[in-house]
Structure formats: structure tokens, C-alpha cells
Amino acid sequence: MTVHSAQLGRFIEDFTVGDVYQHPFGRTISEADSTWFTLLTCNTNQNHFNAHLAATNPITGGRVIVNSGLTVALVLGLSVLDTSQNAVANLGWTDIKLVHPVYVGDTVYAESLITGKRASGSRPGMGILTMKTRGLNQDGVELVTWTRSVLVPSRESGLGQDYFPACTSGPLEAW
User: Fold this and answer.
1) CA distance 42 to 16
2) 75 — phi, psi (to 5°)?
3) What residue ranges carry the coiled-coil annotation (predicted)?
4) Which residue(s) pair with 117 in the sheet?
5) Per-residue pLDDT for 121 more than 70?
6) CA 97 to chain CA mean position, Å
7) Domain spans, the chain
8) How far is residue 31's CA from residue 53's CA, in Å, rounded to a whole number?
9) Is the pLDDT of residue 172 over 90?
10) Residue 161's pLDDT band (cuts 50, 70, 90)
């Protein structure tokens, strides 16, 4: 019997500059998602929740627009599995551009290009990974872009590994 230990994500040595990760999940934004996020963040711009007022907005074609904070958070979340699941810190985002509106009912996807990788000068056993990430809708239209840097451990560091608890009643094959 082979036991496949619980492990998610990649370590700094697993990344290659120039590689593109098409993140595997897409997420359709519901009206509840949009409304809850807007309420949670206390964003009072009525273009996010008042269809009557939004109907007068020439930029959105009269539609309620999804809060851009939700778009950024969703694209970031979609990218985590491949790029920063094991990261110990976000170091920064730059050049965030909101290039196309997002509406309720849109499905959002994300992809990332690895643009840099280097050993950390101050954290032994860690590396700094830099990537460009973009969100796309179901039609392939680019929605948002940015550059992000994260601190990612090496496999040798032991971080993000061997965290699954040993069962106190013994191994599974004892059942």
C-alpha cells in the first residue's frame, strides 16, 4: 500500500521563469456574491447594487457592475493553488489595471506568467517569486492584470509539509 501524503502547492524550486499557469478553476459570480462583497466592504457606490441607478451609467451599458475589489480578490484566489499555496507572505502587488467591467453572471478565470525567481537575501530556505497574473471572463476578455511578488519556501525548509496528523488509533489499514 502506498500512502500519498497531504500536500498542496509548489515550492520555489518547482518554478521556472517563463512558465504560464492556467489556473484550473473558474468561478461564476452570482448576484449574492456581488451584493455580499459590496456590503462587507461598506462600498456605498450604488452602481454595485442599485439596478435603477446603474441603468443610467454609460460605462456599464446600464448594468449593475461587480465591485472591482471582488474581481481582484477572486482572481487572486484562483491563482493561489498553482502559485502561492505554500507562500508564507505576499510581498506586494504593482500595476493593478482594471481593463474591462465584470457583471453578475460572468465566469472568471485566471492565468499567471512567472517573470522572476530568486533566493531571498534575508530568509534562508526561501525564494521570491514574481508573476504577472490576469483575469479573463468566459469569452476570453481580459478583466484585470497585475504583477505580484510572494515569499515561497524551498522544499528543504520543511514548511507546508508533514502537517497531516497521525491518527491516534493507528494506520488506516488497521480498520
Assistant:
1) 40
2) -65, -40
3) none
4) 129
5) yes
6) 15
7) 12-158
8) 16
9) no
10) confident
Burial grade of 80 (CB within 10 A; 0-12, 13-18, 19 or more): middle
Our CA angle for 30, 35, 39, nearest 5°, is: 150
Determine which helix (DSSP H) or strand (DSSP E) holds 22, and give its type and residue range.
strand 20-22
CB atoms within 10 A of CB 154: 18
When pLDDT is cut at 50, 70 and 90, the band that residue 20 belongs to is very high
- Sign of the CA dihedral with 140 first, then 97, 60, and 58 last: negative
> Whole-number mean pLDDT of the chain?
92
Q: Cite the beta strand spans of 63-154 per DSSP E.
A: 89-98, 107-119, 126-136, 142-153
171 three-state secondary structure:
coil
Contact 126, 120 (CB under 8 A): yes
Q: Which of 98, 45, 46 is nearest to 73 (CA)?
A: 98
Q: How far apart are CA 52 and CA 62, in angstroms?
A: 9
The pTM for the full model equals 0.89
- In tens, the pLDDT along 34-87 reads 999 999 999 989 999 899 999 999 988 889 999 999 999 999 999 999 999 999
Asked if 149 contacts 141 with a C-beta cutoff of 8 angstroms, the reply is no
Q: 12-158: what CATH class?
A: alpha beta
The mean pLDDT value for 4-24 works out to: 87
